[in-house]
Amino acid sequence: xxxxxxxxxxxxxxxxxxxxxxxxxxxxxxxxxxxxxxxxxxxxxxxxxxxxxxxxxxxxxxxxxxxxxxxxxxxxxxxxxxxxxxxxxxxxxxxxxxxxxxxxxxxxxxxxxxxxxxxxxxxxxxxxxxxxxxxxxxxxxxxxxxxxxxxxxxxxxxxxxxxxxxxxxxxxxxxxxxxxxxxxxxxxxxxxxxxxxxxxxxxxxxxxxxxxxxxxxxxxxxxxxxxxxxxxxxxxxxxxxxxxxxxxxxxxxxxxxxxxxxxxx
Amino acid sequence: xxxxxxxxxxxxxxxxxxxxxxxxxxxxxxxxxxxxxxxxxxxxxxxxxxxxxxxxxxxxxxxxxxxxxxxxxxxxxxxxxxxxxxxxxxxxxxxxxxxxxxxxxxxxxxxxxxxxxxxxxxxxxxxxxxxxxxxxxxxxxxxxxxxxxxxxxxxxxxxxxxxxxxxxxxxxxxxxxxxxxxxxxxxxxxxxxxxxxxxxxxxxxxxxxxxxxxxxxxxxxxxxxxxxxxxxxxxxxxxxxxxxxxxxxxxxxxxxxxxxxxxxxxxxxxxxxxxxxxxxxxxxxxxxxxxxxxxx
Lengths: 265, 296
Fold this sequence. Notes:
The complex is a heterodimer of chains A (about 260) and B (about 300). Chain A is α/β, with parallel strands linked by helices and about 260 residues long. Chain A folds into two domains: about 1-225, P-loop containing nucleotide triphosphate hydrolases (Rossmann fold, 3-Layer(aba) Sandwich); about 230-265, no CATH class. Helices cover about 40% and strands about 25% of the residues of chain A. Chain A is built from eleven helices and ten strands. Chain A has a six-stranded mixed beta sheet, with helices on both faces. A four-stranded antiparallel beta sheet of chain A has the order 2-1-4-5, covered by helices on one side. In chain A, strand 9 (about 210-215) and strand 10 form a beta hairpin. The longest helix of chain A has 18 residues, at about 175-190. Chain A is globular. Chain A starts with a strand and ends with a helix. Chain B has one domain: ABC transporter involved in vitamin B12 uptake, BtuC (Orthogonal Bundle), CATH 1.10.3470. By secondary structure, chain B is an all-alpha fold. In chain B, a hairpin with a 2-residue loop joins strand 1 and strand 2 (about 135-140). In chain B, about 75% of the residues lie in helices and about 0% in strands. Chain B has eleven helices and two strands. The termini of chain B are far apart. The interface of A and B includes residues 57, 87 and 104 of A.
């Protein structure tokens, strides 16, 4: 069963820049799906097309469709999409810096009935005890890791059925990345939330995801179960930085990399 | 002598509380939408004239007229946002600011069209006999004006601190797109902020009308808002309150001083702007305005 299905999606920015060129993917219900790719491949645009945030930045879906639970949502305004249960945690955390932690979490709960606020707040504090310690602190003064926790906490407050995560590992220390991914996995398992995870950290993403897509230039160029992708020699070379023998790559083969990569796209 | 200055102080506080109200409207719009609203004074004028029309021309009892004016101001806020500002969402700030200047002209002309340019006087709502506070005569209208402004301020402060919508408005002010990603309807927030701004300005207009009577120059009150908000900080509610009061007191006391000592009149009109210039030189983000949070 798939909760999200994106079919032949084409997105144009400012009426001229074609960013997604017929992208198709799907996210299975209750599973974590990873969407990988280099800078500028169109990963963030894909998420924004799903969450409706594209409308605010002169982006437009010109072809194809986004089906959520079987119904098309790509013409809806973002607040309707959030109410339907799709929540995007944006890249770069985007916490409300002049609001304290609890006020940020209340914003996350904006579309939910008042009665579910207290139990959800407890849930967030159970996942992130550190947020509880700092609940009256202004979000702007917290560390990057704490802000990322807050950003995910806001998503938990919104009780999503489909969680879109955009680079949750961005700018975090490796240990924190592990902690964040562990929480994403726990949240997915205990609540049955479907997750679509966009990452540049391919190894971390494929370690939690069951299925993965690899994007280049606005298209999906490879897909498969995470295990297969992890074992695929091209993925190993281009996304995990390993050469055939499983060793780290050295600079001498950069030329080789460029030649092969064109083949992939 | 001392009494003269105390009287000026009281006048200043009352006028200042009205400045605060208008400044509150200005700050709310600026905070939520980053629009500098040059029509704030005209919103006040429209409120005053609508209340005047209801009480004097339609003979509605004052309390009912006041409530009707509030209702009207809500509609006015929605209409202005919908017709003049929503089409400009996403356009350059300067275009939006020009629209508010245009809006101020339109509102002023409409008022002159309907009611002419003569001074009009409100019927007396509160008794004229002064109340003595610490031995000083204070008109009941002044007390009511001050109390009403204070109540509105307290109410909105609580609203922004604790209510879901208030927090959503602050979130939108900080980061529109992130607010959108929470499911906050940013357009509704914009409409709401124009509503609130209209309501507080209209209340200010009604109070002012009760004190001084109204004429078509009332819109210039809006200009006094700039010293007040720049003194207090463009995005701070507390700043609007304190800034308005300080400007009100300063201009009255300075005016009194200039008359008393230098034998100069008309200093009232410029005192506030002298303060504005000084503030911009030494503390451009105002007394309570936010600096950007910087993590180190």
